Inverse folding.
């Protein structure tokens, strides 16, 4: 029996292309596992575990790319090993990986493809971090108050102005005022 697994890394991505490739490869739509969840979500792992639990000897797990199975080479190889222990094999649609062949060249190709998948993910992550650094955007909400206003608040706090009055004056919460006060203690 063919069992499919699909996964996307972000909520912005779509499962449609992977789903269609799995169907075109002969996987029945009701035998396709995977959800749309972020790469760090437990839902992806839960779906992958459901597929592995369902897999039986002689089944073939079909994926579009090796990196769908995990976020590191170690994780990918562990999943493949678990699939093999169940007596199932793995076939990759977009990469030359088919573990039903157990010759040394196929095993080497599997390790190489997993390594390159991990390298690609790491390069994308590095480029994303570099782009954020260049744009001075590290995520999160932008600061409500610029450095000059923060400095003013710290001076007014030292002069004894109440946090409630400062939060009203600058239009921020008392928690923000407390955070600004703590920043002054670490400078």
């Amino acid at each position: 029996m063919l069992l499919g697994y699909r996964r996307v890394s972000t909520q912005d991505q779509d499962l449609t292309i992977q789903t269609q490739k799995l169907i075109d490869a002969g996987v029945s739509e009701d035998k396709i596992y995977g959800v749309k969840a972020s790469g760090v979500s437990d839902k992806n792992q839960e779906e992958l575990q459901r597929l592995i639990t369902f897999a039986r000897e002689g089944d073939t797990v079909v994926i579009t790319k090796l990196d769908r199975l995990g976020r590191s080479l170690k994780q990918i190889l562990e999943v493949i090993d678990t699939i093999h222990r169940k007596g199932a094999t793995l076939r990759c649609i977009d990469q030359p990986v088919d573990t039903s062949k157990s010759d040394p060249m196929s095993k080497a190709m599997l390790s190489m493809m997993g390594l390159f998948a991990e390298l690609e993910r790491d390069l994308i992550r590095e480029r994303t971090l570099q782009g954020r650094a260049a744009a001075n955007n590290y995520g999160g909400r932008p600061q409500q108050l610029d450095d000059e206003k923060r400095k003013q608040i710290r001076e007014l706090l030292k002069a004894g102005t109440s946090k409630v009055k400062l939060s009203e004056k600058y239009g921020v919460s008392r928690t923000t005022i407390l955070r600004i006060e703590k920043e002054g203690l670490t400078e």
Q: What stands out?
A: The chain has a mean pLDDT of 85. The radius of gyration is 25 Å.
